[in-house]
Amino acid sequence: MSAAPSPAAATDTTAALSDPAQLAALHRDMLRFARLQLRDQALAEDAVQEAIEAALVGAAAYAGKAALRTWVFSILRNKIVDLLRRGSRLTTLGCVVGEDDEEGAIDALFRANGHWQPDCRPRGWEAPEESLENKQFWAVFEACLDHLPQSVARVFMMREMLGFETAEICAKAGITANNCHVILHRARTGLRQCLERNWFVTGECRAC
Amino acid sequence: MLTCKDATRLCSEALDRPLTLRERLTLRAHLLICTGCTRYNEQMAALRRIAARFADGGFARPDGETDADGGNGSEGK
Which residue ranges does the record assign to the Putative zinc-finger domain (chain B) (predicted)? Predict the structure, then answer.
């Protein structure tokens, strides 16, 4: 009997990460995510590569194969956060996001008295949790993210996907707290409307 | 009395900072009488869950990947 010192879980993880098909799919999705956050192909490739290496090195400490994807993505998110913190890439955000412009996009949804335009009033979303299991839904979600002005999408993703506090986003982007809130409001409102129009409400007929 | 525009702004800001007591009360009063903004508010919570799931890599179900699990032959049949 020659028992290897490493636990079985670690071997499984290493095996999963060295299975070419599985690794290729994971790599593709990680790269898509990193490119969205960093908007820089070379930086994104490096971050993904480093995350996969870190995953292989850390495999011994990782127990359980089921959440492998989640775990590797958490490593990738940390790498992206580091890159964004270190880099000066956010200085461009402030200039791109004009406050007037952002208010304009919101104003279009409301009547002069500040209440909803009838066409824009939110409708009910049926079983949003079920949509998360649908691959098509994620294609719509990505298209909706893409549809936002790039800087608006980036602020939203830093907040909701990378877990930055609003204060840090404002400071990093050199914008006021108020402007930050305006941008996030704009992003959420835009995504909400886009998802509703392209998924949740048109979805009535989609099931058949 | 809040407008719907102001109410949606508060729904959004509630995700980023604690609202003041006054803001919470006026928002709650508005939501009681406004279905549009009530839905908006619920959908903000859904949107947060959607974004978190995306960030976890949950945007592509590993259809083929989990099925390709049998390589180990651990079923022993």
Answer: 4-37
